Amino acid sequence: MVKKTHQDAAVDEGNVRRPIRSRDKLVTWIESCVLGDLRTVLVGVDAYYASPSHMSTDGRPLGSANFLLVAGCCSALDYFAFLFKGGASDEANAKAFIDRFLEPVDSRYCDVGLIIWRCFRHGTVHRSWPKRIVVEGDGSSVVITGAGNEVMDAHLAPSTDLPGDTFLVNGRRLLSDLTLAFDRSFRDWILTESPDGVLERANPEDLLIRVGDTQGRRQMEVVKRWNDELRGTHS
Hints:
The chain is mainly alpha-helical. The chain contains eight helices and three strands; from the N terminus they run αααααβββααα. It has helices at residues 6-17, 23-50, 66-84, 90-102, 108-127, 171-193, 197-202, 214-233; strands at residues 133-135, 138-148, 165-170. The protein has a three-stranded mixed β-sheet with strand order 1-2-3. It is globular, with a radius of gyration of 22 Å.
């Protein structure tokens, strides 16, 4: 067994902290992992609809992952927008990406892009449900939002089955449109137009535990202790 030097260890740590070191690796990461993970979710969605029982092997009920797929697509949109714009405002980043890359796929994204961001990204990721839309001071202006993922479910459109005003997003269609945006233009932007800072933005961010954060520091020490114990069992 070859013992690693301190230089080897430093290289390994650098690769872990900054795994994406080229634009080619970035587009591979997006294709295989960011969009690839969402395609895996979609495989599970199709398996759900193909199953007559909608039950798992341990007898527990399965869900159709309609909110999960849309939330995952919004997470990908968040990442793409940060790569593209890199600004401090996530909402401004999202709008810039939608206007540049999703509008050519379907112009309706420019009409309702911020509604998607605020209702489905914020609501579904943080509270498990997409937010309802209400207008301040006008109790009669309520729009119920929802998500579907079957081929024929509405996308960027009202529901034909529910009363009142509604707005639906189809996760299957959203994933397809994000993929088209990547294939038609975003990939080329990364490879040929993006600034050098795109690779910095593509890599994991640091979680900074500040000096006065006693709980964070205490839990960090727990994680470090677990690592020390693991190394002790393999030495």
